[in-house]
Amino acid sequence: MTAHERGAQVLAAAVSAFAETGYTATRTDEIARRAGVSQPYVIRLFGSKQRLFLAAVAQVCDRIEAVFTEAATGAGPDASLDALSEAYDRFLAERNLLQVLLHAFAAAGDPEIGPVVRDRYGRIYRLLRELTGASVAETRKFLSTGMLLTVMAALRVTGPEAITADWAQDILTDLHEHGM
After folding, report:
1. What pLDDT, on a 0 to 100 scale, did the predictor assign at position 119?
2. How far is the C-alpha of 3 from the C-alpha of 25, rounded, in Å?
3. What is the dihedral of CA 167, 61, 125, 104, to 10 degrees?
4. Is 72 exposed, middle or buried (0-12, 13-18, 19+ CB in 10 A)?
5. What count of Cα atoms within 13 Å lies in the side-chain half-sphere of residue 59?
6. Which residues of 10-46 are buried (b: 16+ CB within 10 A; e: fewer)?
7. Distance between CA atoms of 34 and 29, rounded to whole angstroms?
8. Is the distance from CB of 4 to CB of 29 less than 8 angstroms?
């Protein structure tokens, strides 16, 4: 396995571990165990747990940006937020990524993590506006609905293994009737 492949393997293990237990509770030795490498190797690759967490956050945000860009490209020059909302469903199916994103927001109080998380969220906001030409209000509504769906997915009241919740069904029905 090349160093690049090993780094990708460690990053995948980190995404899985951070998704489960968040930044603070995740230990680098657990990530190393999942990746099948030593803990010193994890630190050698990423420098610190914090830098590894930021790499995991970057991977999640890169995936969000890629999903939206692909959807806009497929929709053509008149891409709308509706085309991107359909693509968001693909991201919602990637549960680990959602949970890392939520943990990133929770860790944003850290002076080293917060600026990176805020910057990446800002990049997503600007990308949405650039891809669709949406107004600030339209983009705000899109992002607000996306966060609601993200939280609902984390609560497991949506998706293939959804736990029944009447309030969640009310929200999902309303979203399908009136659009994201």
Report:
1. 98
2. 27
3. 60
4. buried
5. 24
6. bbbbbbbbbbeebbeebebebbbebbebeeebbeebb
7. 9
8. no
Report the candidate in 25, 31, 40 with the shortest Cα–Cα distance to residue 13: 31
* In the chain, where the domains are located: 3-178
pLDDT in tens, 41-96: 999 999 999 999 999 999 999 999 999 999 998 887 777 888 888 888 888 888 89
Among the listed residues 175, 53, 70, the one whose alpha carbon sits nearest the alpha carbon of residue 114: 53
pLDDT at 180 (0 to 100): 64
Task: Measure the CA–CA gap between 25 and 35, rounded to whole angstroms.
Answer: 18
- Using DSSP's 3-state secondary structure scheme, residue 38 falls into coil
63: left (phi over 0), alpha (psi -120 to 50) or beta: alpha
Q: Which amino acid is present at 27? A: R
* pLDDT tens-place string over residues 106-162: 999 999 999 999 999 999 999 999 999 999 999 999 999 999 988 998 888 887 777
3-178 sits in which CATH class? mainly alpha
Instruction: Tokens for 76, please give them.
Output: 């053509």
CB environment 102-140: b (16+ within 10 A), e (fewer): bbbeebeeeeebeebbeebbeebeebbbebbebeeeebe
